[in-house]
Amino acid sequence: MTTTVSNKPSAPRVLAVLVAVITVFGALLADFVIPASAAQHLRNDAWPPHAKFHDAQYISMSILLGAVALTLLLRRGGGSRSRVWTACAILATPWLGLLAAMLFPGTAVHDPEFADIRIIGLHPQVLLALILLALLAVAVALRARQRN
């Protein structure tokens, strides 16, 4: 018996694609392109070259992981349970890494020369990571409930 996998958009797939697009473009825009936030990252003259290297590494990694996830999700059969789950695991990687980085000694989510902006008590990057991880968890849970 063969199983056919629909290529039509499903809620889990749409959620994962949304997170993938944000993952592809988010760090690049925030850390390099948008002047106000880039001044706190790659365009921060106070940062040593090695710190800028690691931010560029994170930007590149996010683009690559998002692109791999998009490839899994947008190809024929991208709505299959295994593809959605794999894409969600891949997409969770940079966002879990962002949260885990706060656990290392001497790290901070913002440099002291910049205002410590908070939204509902959280730094915007942390809030975004939690929202995107929640969307991925919803996508996985919804996909688990579907038959195919």
Write out key terms for the chains shown:
148 residues; mainly alpha; 5 helices
What does this structure look like?
The chain is mainly α and 148 residues long. It has one domain (11-145). It is built from five helices and no strands. The chain has helices at residues 11-33, 35-38, 49-74, 81-101, 124-145. Helix 1 (11-33) runs antiparallel to helix 3 (49-74), helix 1 (11-33) runs parallel beside helix 4 (81-101) and helix 4 runs antiparallel to helix 5. The longest helix is centred in the middle third of the chain and has 26 residues, at 49-74. The chain is elongated and about 55 Å long. The model has no long low-confidence stretch (mean pLDDT 93). Keywords: Membrane, Transmembrane, Transmembrane helix. The chain crosses the membrane at residues 14-36, 56-74, 86-106, 126-144.
Question: Mean of the pLDDT scores?
Answer: 93
- Poorly predicted regions: none
- Name the helix and strand elements from N-terminus to C-terminus, one letter apiece: HHHHH
Instruction: Estimate the helix proportion, in percent.
Output: 55-70%
The dominant shape is: elongated
Number of helices: 5
InterPro entries: DUF6640 (IPR046580)
Keywords: Membrane, Transmembrane, Transmembrane helix
Pfam families: DUF6640
Transmembrane segments: 14-36, 56-74, 86-106, 126-144
